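The data are set out underneath:

___
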Amino acid sequence: CAMAPGKKITAKIKKTLPVTGPQAPTLSELMNWYCLNTNTHGCRRIVVSRGRLRRLIWILLTLSAVGLILWQCAELLMNYYSASVSVTVQFQKLPFPAVTICNINPYKYSAMKDYLSELDKETKNALETFYGFSEGKSKVRRSVGDENTTGSEFFEQIPLLKFEDFSKTVIDLRSGQKRKTEGNVFHKDSSIVNSEDSNDIIGFQLCDANNSSECALYTFSSGVNAIQEWYKLHYMNIMAQIPLETKEELSYSADDLLLTCFFDGLSCDKRHFTRFHHPLYGNCYTFNSGENGTVLSTSTGGSEYGLQVVLYIDEADYNPFLVTSSGAKIMVHDQNEYPFIEDIGTEIEPAAATSIGMHFTQSRKLSKPYSDCTETGADIPVENLYNKSYSLQICLHSCFQKAMVDSCGCAQYAQPLPAGAEYCNYKKNPNWMYCYYRLHEKFVKEQLGCQQICKDACSFKEWALTTSIAQWPSTASEDWMLRVLSWDKGQKINKKLNKTDLVNLMVFYEDLNERFISENPTNTIVTLLSNFGGQLGLWMSCSVVCVIEIVEVFFIDSFSIVMRRRWQKTKKWWNDRKREQVGKPSQASDLDGQGHDNPVCIDEDLPTFNTALRLPLPRENHLPRTPPPNYSTLRLETAFTEQLPDTLDVRQH
């Protein structure tokens, strides 16, 4: 059907009108259009400047500005994840922390003699053989090989050895004979007590029960450390076989440990303490544990308003081979925190008044991406064995215990039991000691992966402690105080307590200033966008709209042009191939079409006068057109044969 005249004119103008802007057919035309129409400074000057030098200068300035923008924005992004530390101090009524108290001696030696009699006997034999020690009397030291002293199972499991000049030639305590040993030597140097002969090195040998050639030698320059370490290994092996209920009965009760108690000026008793059993320290007691849902607080600083207790440690009933110091061990901690007495506990000496002043600090760090800390520990692939809030120590101990169960088949005595596991003893697990030492060596060298898995907690509470010690009781008051305390203890009046059996402890806030240390983001998303805008406006006079324009032109439109031309090439190749198959000649390339000859460019708007003025000039080889008429041959002819009467001039009348 015939096309309407208006549509014919529109189609003709579209065919010859060159296209600019996002619908330009080539990248060069698109870039030229962008530079002429963009609002960013510099780009337009590149196009409109006359002279190569001036154009080159504007290109360098524009590229330098773009480079500075990218550099400054990269710095802003890198600093976005930085944090600033702020310290806030508040004066208010503070909750009193939990205070866990343990006797350094975990179990009454008199109650443990039935379990430890054989071990103590062999330990005394070892002391007599090595050092000539017998029942507390020092004798002349004799040669180890003079007598075959013992053949007990303790020395069969872990033989005590004397090394000659740090060599692998040893004298076995059990056999009294010299022999060569194989295995790696681990020297645990110590300067606590040295033997008379500096060449005498005491140690023991641990071998793999499944492979006797796999051994490790552990040496000590101090005989005290060697005997104690050897004793503790057998001690843990024995204690692992005793039920928990029995061990709680063998340890100290609250009535045994506590003599007097005051808090905030008021009297307190064992009802304010919660017992929990520690594998290495026996029965420990926590003041203000919060188990009943109530946490005590204090409204005044000073020693009179803190916790004051007098403890009875009963030094005479200490295990002489297990512990070499006397007193108590305490730890100040949060109610939801597990007290690692063995790691960070504070030792309190007897026959002295120990005052511990506290400063409370609460810290909070930002989690990812600002730091590598964890909020609750839920993202750490290690089971929490302590049933307390997450901490780095809990994670490390739990990780080691899990590795112990996986590698050795049993759990280490000093840490909680995982589900389905049991504590190691060499009756059921003859290889556990060698396995434990090898595993602990890997743990210390950070080869188990626990240090890489475990992370710091993002929030934690800390009590900074200041300790001072005074003699207690004084010489003047010693007599009557010990008599009164003996009466309170239920002893006969004529049998006083010894002051070395007593520990006086005071724990209090020095002030009620709560220090809160927190990390805050240096930059928020608002400040980041504002800084971006400042950089873009400073160097390129650019706004967010300009950025969107750049994205549209340089990415979307450029991609469309590239894909369009590829599609046209592919279409041309396909059409040429089809024509070759049917034997038709190839037609002109569709790529030669400019402007609206491109079928992708579709614009239904009618042409305007301004767009018509931009029509290209006709080509030189344009087709011949109909020549214009010869106006001199044109004549006016009337359409009527005679003039109408009403058109005649009135003057003719």
Observations:
- Residues 292 and 321 are 39 Å apart (CA to CA).
- The longest strand covers residues 352-364.
- The longest helix spans residues 544-582.
